[in-house]
User: Which sequence fits this backbone?
């Protein structure tokens, strides 16, 4: 599809954004299995995949205006602060990723203890939740921050041996999702968002791996 101006027709825009999500999801899966570094440039590439055909002007570009999030008390940082904030995210993300082990290898190694398996999976989920929240908190892009955050979290999950998930943000789940993010803003409590990620993993693994290792219950003790 050639580059075009943002469609004024809502249905056409939705179609292009839907195609963008599919492309971004494929990009994430392919990137997860590469040896390429995961950094803020990767996050910008994910955003570009989503919006390149729907709204090319903003695709992969940090916002240049202040935003207000509908139905949310959170006020994203001033747009002028976004580059430095994302640079800080980049530095911290590299440190966090550098400490992670590959969960898939741990799960398939019969010599590993359940405790070590749990610790490895917990570490991966924690980093996925952290980067997810950072993107939604900073809101670096004009549109699509939630979608970009969820796909970036999936990239971390898949790179380190788990599976990409679908965090449901429609209907009654939307309030739960927003409350989970607000809980981090208010108290630094990542557990509600991590619970959503664990539930997504449970669905993707048909409940077998997560329930067998009793991940969520053990982490709440």
Assistant:
């Amino acid at each position: 599809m050639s580059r075009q101006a943002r469609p004024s027709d809502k249905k056409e825009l939705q179609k292009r954004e839907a195609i963008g999500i599919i492309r971004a999801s494929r990009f994430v899966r392919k990137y997860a299995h590469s040896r390429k570094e995961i950094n803020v440039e990767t996050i910008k590439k994910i955003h570009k995949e989503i919006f390149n055909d729907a709204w090319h002007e903003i695709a992969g570009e940090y916002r240049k205006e202040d935003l207000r999030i509908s139905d949310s008390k959170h006020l994203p940082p001033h747009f002028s602060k976004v580059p430095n904030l994302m640079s800080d995210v980049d530095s911290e993300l590299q440190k966090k990723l550098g400490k992670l082990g590959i969960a898939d290898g741990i799960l398939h190694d019969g010599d590993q203890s359940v405790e070590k398996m749990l610790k490895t999976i917990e570490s991966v989920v924690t980093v996925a939740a952290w980067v997810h929240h950072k993107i939604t908190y900073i809101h670096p892009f004009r549109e699509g921050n939630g979608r970009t955050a969820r796909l970036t979290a999936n990239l971390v999950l898949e790179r380190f041996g788990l599976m990409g998930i679908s965090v449901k943000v429609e209907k009654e789940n939307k309030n739960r999702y927003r409350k989970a993010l607000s809980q981090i803003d208010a108290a630094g409590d990542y557990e509600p968002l991590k619970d959503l990620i664990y539930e997504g993993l449970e669905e993707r693994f048909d409940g077998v791996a997560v329930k067998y290792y009793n991940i969520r219950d053990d982490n709440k003790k």
